[in-house]
TrEMBL record:
GO terms for molecular function: fructose-bisphosphate aldolase activity; zinc ion binding. NCBIfam families: cbbA (TIGR00167), FruBisAldo_II_A (TIGR01520), PRK09197.1 (NF006628). Keywords: Glycolysis, Lyase, Metal-binding, Zinc. Belongs to the class II fructose-bisphosphate aldolase family. It comes from Pycnoporus cinnabarinus. This is Fructose-bisphosphate aldolase.
């Protein structure tokens, strides 16, 4: 039995999202996700080729980019419009690729809540027409706030989200490094490792509202890729969280938590495997896919340099046109090809191949 026996192709919402994550947890695989607008099609292509469900997400900055860097974003208007545009794009094309997609928005810190509010409004409007939300899932990241406030704000939003069939991803403990202007490079080391009691506090608060949530716990994760040796990842800690929650629940449910792995780029295959064994159902891979996207374009520009200096005239003759080299469909496609390969590699590391 594969994923398509459980959920349909296209964007998933409501209990279908949980069914997919439950299946992933049971079969010990996870689904990577990538951020950005122009890479959506390449990600879907990779997922289709290897028969894998996939997560597509937009970050606040990625969403603004989707709408266009020329737009003002002082009230998050570009991030809201871009996220909505990306969602409609994914909804329109995903079915053609025949793969189930979880459509997600990434980290939303307290100061970015107007972005979250804008997306939620779009979900409610979409729900009024289609009986499902526009997105599958959103992340709230109040990990920099005190624990009580973090949980309270998540619960408050989750009460509004759950009836629409929206999944909530929240973060407790801090992902180190820097991403999209949120700089956690100076954060105290102990905060980079979430404690089991913190996870349990989240679980008790949110499970009263709906079972459709996941927790991004910190286990030494850092956004971005750095020199080996600077990052001390401890995915084995995730099993402690599962066992702690299992015991609190009276042993009735094995691995009760849906866990999320942030800062997955640059991790070893062994670390990824341990994380998946311990109930990680989603791993964010952004930095590595950004790099992959560049590589194809960079190599093309370097290899075809003689064809890219003027519109007419190349090593084959002074009157030869270069249009078939400088057409964006040619060189952007080269980036897509290397990205497709990298997404396939990430899916393979996570055991997410031949799952449909
Ligand atoms: Zn992250």
């Amino acid at each position: 039995m594969g994923v398509l026996d459980i959920v349909p192709p296209g964007v998933l919402t409501g209990d279908n999202v949980r069914k997919l994550f439950e299946y992933a947890k049971e079969h010990k695989f996870a689904i990577p996700n990538v951020t950005s607008s122009s890479v959506v099609n390449a990600v879907l292509e990779a997922a289709r080729d290897i028969k894998a469900p996939i997560i597509i997400q937009v970050s606040q900055g990625g969403a603004a980019f989707f709408a266009g860097k020329g737009l003002p974003n002082d009230k998050q208007q570009a991030s809201i419009a871009g996220a909505i545009a990306a969602a409609h794009h994914v909804r329109t094309v995903a079915k053609e690729y025949g793969v189930p997609v979880v459509l997600h928005s990434d980290h939303c810190a307290k100061k970015l809540l107007p972005w979250f509010d804008g997306m939620l409004k779009a979900d409610e409007e979409y729900y009024a027409q289609h009986k499902e939300p526009l997105f599958s899932s959103h992340m709230l990241d109040l990990s920099e706030e005190p624990k009580e406030e973090n949980i309270a704000i998540c619960a408050q939003y989750f009460k509004r989200m759950a009836p629409l069939g929206l999944w909530l991803e929240m973060e407790i403990g801090i992902t180190g490094g820097e991403e999209d202007g949120v700089d956690n490079t100076g954060v105290d080391n102990s905060r980079l490792y979430t404690q089991p009691q913190d996870i349990w506090d989240v679980y008790t608060a949110l499970s009263q509202i709906s079972p459709n949530f996941s927790i991004a716990a910190a286990f030494g994760n850092v956004h971005g890729v750095y020199k080996p040796g600077n990052v001390h990842l401890h995915p084995e800690l995730l099993n402690k969280h599962q066992l702690y929650a299992e015991e609190k629940l009276g042993g009735k449910k094995k691995k009760p938590l849906f866990l999320v792995f942030h800062g997955g780029s640059g991790s070893t295959k062994e670390e990824i495997k341990t994380a998946v064994q311990n109930g990680v159902v989603k791993m964010n891979v952004d930095t590595d896919t950004q790099w992959a996207y560049l590589c194809g374009i960079r190599d093309f520009i370097q290899n075809k340099s003689g064809y890219l200096q003027t519109q007419v005239g190349n090593p084959e003759g002074a009157d030869k046109p270069n249009k078939k080299y400088y057409d964006p469909r040619v060189w952007v496609r080269e980036g897509e090809k290397t990205l497709v390969q990298r997404v396939k590699e990430a899916c393979t590391d996570l055991g997410n191949v031949d799952r449909l």
